[in-house]
Design a protein that fits this description.
By secondary structure, the protein is an all-alpha fold. It has two helices and no strands. It has helices spanning about 1-20, 20-45. The longest helix is centred in the middle third of the chain and has 23 residues, at about 20-45. It is rod-shaped and about 75 Å long.
Length: about 60
């Protein structure tokens, strides 16, 4: 995800130098997207647990 941040930083520098507000907006949106995906990947499923129990202790061939 470091590539997103580097790309957004380079785009922001170019936008400020070239006085291009549209490119600056894209750079800010790219930085936001990269940051959000990094945070979601790290913390999104942190406390999710899954457990399952069967209804019976044994099964016979042909049971549904």
């Amino acid at each position: 995800m470091g590539d997103w941040i580097a790309l957004a930083g380079a785009m922001a520098v170019v936008a400020v130098v070239a006085d291009a507000p549209g490119v600056l907006l894209v750079a800010v949106l790219t930085l936001g997207y990269g940051s959000l995906t990094t945070v979601w990947t790290r913390y999104g499923m942190r406390r999710v647990e899954y457990s399952r129990r069967l209804g019976t202790g044994r099964a016979v061939a042909g049971d549904s």
